[in-house]
Design brief:
Elements lengths: L8 H15 L29 H26 L1 E3 L2 E2 L1 H12 L1 H14 L8 H8 L14 H17 L3 H16 L4 H13 L1
Helix pairs in contact: 2-3, 2-4, 3-4, 3-6, 4-5, 4-6
Amino acid sequence: MINAKLVEYKDLEQFSLDAEQANHDPVELPEIPKSEQPVYTQKPDPDIDLAGDELKAYYASLNLNVECGRAIDQAIIASNYDQYRYDLKTAVRDVIEEFGADRVAWVVASNVNNANHDGRLSTDNKAWAKDFDTPKPDFYLKTHLAVLNGFVDNFRKAEKEKPSLMAALNAGEKKSKSQTGVDTPDKSAQKKKDRMEV
């Protein structure tokens, strides 16, 4: 699922204003990499966002979605190494590095949901895309749906292979217990089983 993160643009603008008043020199705001830009899944309510900052960020996110869609198409074309043969694993990696997994997932899922009726997409990929409540796509991919299906397969594999934070923490906890000599439940059960066999 997408973990949409919001950036406090008001704080950055306030930082810029404070610095300009102190130094009387123009200050450049730090640029946020594309892969760390927030993904907006719905348009903010204009009644709540009185300053319009969220609305500007939403449209910036929309533009990044279009740019990401174009990059997906280009990465797939670039990965074609022989007629009808693609290195989609590399294409997935390149696009994720540039735009982040959340944005790639959003763009791809919206296109899969848009073509949900098509038999060239696997039922597994259609089921995966249904988890995203996507409106019509911000960018319609020009990639053939059978190739897009392969791209989605490789994207989902890459997401499964990516270790989660909890898994990394649990692995670190087990490692520290093994270094301190405290048995983990798996090791103590195996020792009991070994004793019973002797």
